[in-house]
Amino acid sequence: MNIHEYQAKALLAQKGLMVPISRSALSIEEADEAATWVRTQTHHPVVVVKAQIHAGGRGKGGGVKVAKTPEETQAAIRNIFGMQLVTHQTGPEGKKVRRLLLEQGVDIARELYAAVVLDRQSGRLVLMASTEGGMDIEEVAEHTPEKIFKQVIDPMIGLGAYQARELAFALGLKAAGMEAVSSAAGFFTTMVKAFQELDCSLLEINPLVLTKQGRIIALDAKLNIDDNALYRHPELEALRDLDEEDPAETEAKRFDLSYVKLTGNIGCMVNGAGLAMATMDIIQHFGGMPANFLDVGGGATKEKVTAAFKIITSDPSVRGIFINIFGGIMKCDTIASGVIAAVKEVGLTVPLVVRLEGTNVEQGKAILRDSGLNVVTAADMADGAQKIVALSRAAEKA
């Protein structure tokens, strides 16, 4: 689950990390009041106006402005609030700005980068830091990987104090004095603890800044919560912003379906994450592009299959659908019944290829065959992928 910057900073502040004085706003009037409050708290005229959307690159897209006077602040608020903000992560359609964060200006001495991530290869958390704060970490990794420093965290003992200090030294903070080193080491230790206590899948601070007063502050924060751990954090579920989430993904969560929208035109319905990945790979192998990842799970019901089919067909970019099921716990006749029910309810305007194998496969094939619907069956996964790629191309041209 993604949350906004202002929400992430509030959570980090509760854990003891230093963040700028700020206040969020849901309207222009609230933003004007928030800006006045920030200036009153800091006794300083500089206010930073930040768009709050679930995407990076907001500054490059014009969604972050540093205002040095009340007049500049008011102008920035009115320019940013309600704009359709386009960044490299939103796509060309952009996202409408419905929330703002009004934040104190900070005297920056250096911009750094810090993140806690899960390294799936080692099966451990890794604390990453870089001297290249404010940059896209992917660019740093590609062009100057030597500027990224890492500490692998032992799950039994956590981040060692020596590891935190080593990272601070690697960032060159000793030049700013041992107080800066100590401040950074303490920040890193608390950051890792926050990641673990909040059940994060990502905690990224970019930039992490050293102020001219020698303090370490999280000037920005990206925090993702592991959906599988939300049952332990009902208070975090309330932070979900449905306006920022894909309606199809929201509907999928309601039926406990794993769904991610992609950029292709071939809708996929599969049972099992591994088979879903293989299905997407083989579609691309034969020249197509998947429109989604959709795993109905091993024990899906007829209702869940119907819901999954509706979600796929609601995507206007879909020009063909490939249903690829290997029935173990999931029975092929259940899938077939769900597909027939969904087609009868929502209609079928694009080609549909179905590959069934496993438990009750003959019953499932019979249900499809006797339905009278225009369903193309496939002998195996490769046959199905080739057929749906060809049919979707024909549909695209029609």
- What separation lies between the terminal Cα atoms? 39 Å
Mean pLDDT reading: 90
What is the makeup of the main sheet?
6 strands, antiparallel
CATH topology name of the largest domain: D-amino Acid Aminotransferase, Chain A, domain 1
Question: Considering DSSP H and I runs of 4 or more, what fraction of the residues is helical?
Answer: 25-40%
SS summary, helix count = 13
Shape: elongated
Features:
398 residues, alpha+beta, D-amino Acid Aminotransferase, Chain A, domain 1, Dna Ligase, domain 1, Rossmann fold, 6-stranded antiparallel β-sheet, 4-stranded antiparallel β-sheet, 13 helices, 18 strands, 24% strand
Protein model, in words:
With 398 residues, this protein is α+β, with helices and mostly antiparallel strands. It has three domains: 1-19 and 107-244, ATP-grasp fold, B domain (D-amino Acid Aminotransferase, Chain A, domain 1), CATH 3.30.470; 21-105, 2-Layer Sandwich (Dna Ligase, domain 1); 246-397, Succinyl-CoA synthetase domains (Rossmann fold), CATH 3.40.50. The protein is built from 13 helices and 18 strands. It has helices at residues 5-14, 28-42, 70-80, 137-143, 161-170, 178-197, 234-237, 247-254, 273-285, 302-313, 332-346, 361-369, 381-397; strands at residues 22-25, 47-51, 64-67, 84-85, 95-96, 100-104, 108-119, 124-130, 148-153, 200-211, 216-218, 222-225, 258-261, 266-270, 292-295, 320-327, 352-358, 376-377. The strands form five sheets. Strands 7, 8, 9, 10, 11 and 12 form a six-stranded antiparallel β-sheet that branches. β17, α12 and β18 (376-377) form a beta-alpha-beta unit. The protein is elongated.
